[in-house]
Predict the structure of Sensor-like histidine kinase SenX3.
Amino acid sequence: MDASWYVLLAILLGFAIGAASVHLLGLAAQRGRQVMAIASEPIPDGITAMVHVLESAGVVLDGSNQVIVASPGAHALDLVEGRTLRAHEMADAVRRVWSTGAAEVLDMTHRRGRLGGGHDVQLRVRVAPLGNRFMLVLATDRTEELRLAGVRRDFVANISHELKTPIGALQVLAEAIEAGAEEPERVRSFAQRMQVEADRLGRMTKELIDLSRIQADDPLDHAERFPIAQVVDVAVDRNRVLADAKRIRIMPRVLEEADVLGSEELVTMAVQNLISNAVQYSPEATHVGVGVRVVDDVVEVAITDKGVGIPADEQERVFERFYRIDPARSRVTGGTGLGLSIVKHVAASHGGEVSLWSRPGQGSTFTLRLPAAAAPAHKETP
Ligand code: ADP
């Protein structure tokens, strides 16, 4: 072979090596682009929008457990910190689901909020794979639901206890009457006590019916317009006999006239309960004030007494059903422990509230606040 053949062969070889290198480089670049695409896989269409419209708080994590989407609810519940899940229990569940592939549901207590140490909320958490690259965590706040279930359980337990007491007393008294039939004096005394217990049962039944009616019915659905001064007049009047028996003066003072929208009967019942408590928990020959004023379109009815007062740590609880500070004393006054919870429900169902200021030994002021009805639109006279 002469030299020119060697030159040609070398050129061809060089060309082939060059072409192969270019091809290999091209392949490498293409593979690199694919790897990049996997590493920065965009969040599939619609997931962010879906997480944001869910009722539960939602978080989506990628394969390295980094948060890539978190709904406003998830931030509000403090579920994420930067790009990680704050709760260890939740992060552990995510790890388990990655390895088993099976969705999990767990109930957990989570500390929400950082100011003042935060507070605990009860969460139901669902963790499920979203395709094979993402993980979805949904959390529902069940704190209120669980609290209400507890209130309902307590209510049933309380009501059976509260009803059993007077019914038991009636049974014992009836037996005593039977046994002492020959002694008219004793029979009379037992009969009087039966009357007291029967009254208590009657009052409790009525108040329970009132309470369930207020809770079942929205008074604003068929609201009537009525003057608050009329409510105060009737409520004061209904307490007159009770107050006279203790030589207590009830002093109404209506500074401004205003109308309220809702049920006149229910608002009267609420004011009447507050006045009757003021009278019952006050010593003889004192005063009970009933003041009415209007502040920023809100009607305020304040009932003030110079009675026994309520210790600070009981002030929230007195509005609970059947809660009584001194059950023995309450039995004497015939209290059922339902009066203030009726007031609270009447206030809430009228878009208002009831608040309490009290100091033991000094007295109490209960203030019922209700939205004032707007002035009626009056027709132009031609
Ligand atoms: P009750 O039928 O026992 O009066 P309420 O629900 O009306 O039930 O009141 C709950 C408890 O709150 C009462 O048992 C009493 O201990 C306390 N309380 C209510 N009003 C007053 C008041 N004006 N002064 C002092 N204690 C009060």
User: Anything to note?
Assistant: Confidence is low (pLDDT under 50) at residues 31-40. The two ends are 126 Å apart (CA to CA). The chain has eleven helices and 14 strands.
